[in-house]
Design a protein that fits this description.
Layout lengths: L16 E6 L2 E6 L8 E2 L7 E5 L5 E6 L6 E7 L7 E7 L2 E7 L8 E5 L5 E7 L5 E9 L33
Length: 171
Amino acid sequence: FAFARVRASRSSLPNSSASFAAAAGSFFCSLEITPETATPIPLGPTATPGAIEVPGDLDVFLLPVTSGQGVIVETVGTDPLMQSSLQILSGNTVIATGSRGETGAAATVFFVAPAGDVFARVFHSFGNTGSYGIRARLAVDEHGGTEATATPLTPAAPVDGEWTAGDVDLF
């Protein structure tokens, strides 16, 4: 019997595959992402716990979204040494990315869901380990983004709203 330890490097993340050589010969390891190999998470305010357990580890989650929905995915409650990075994938193709330049900071990504399976992949940018939470929610566009759907304003009356990357609000 022969055993080999496989660790995905930062350069292998976009392609979801890694190759390596061992004394007994060359091997290829495919890190295929499918609904069966990803952890499903619900839409909503509750975070699903996760952990980067060893340097180079990555976690993959299945997002329950429908084509055309605006979605916000974020990591929350990260360990002080954890600098989480987040990639959104359609199949095995990266369609959006997000990370924070500070340790202990969360990553946030906004995207419009394509057709087919959509995944979120979490990893640490600099090889640290730690725990985090991940949540996904639908982006609510509370103000119109066109002249026809613009929100009317009343003088001296404040208007609340939430802006997310890619959102356009007209008043």
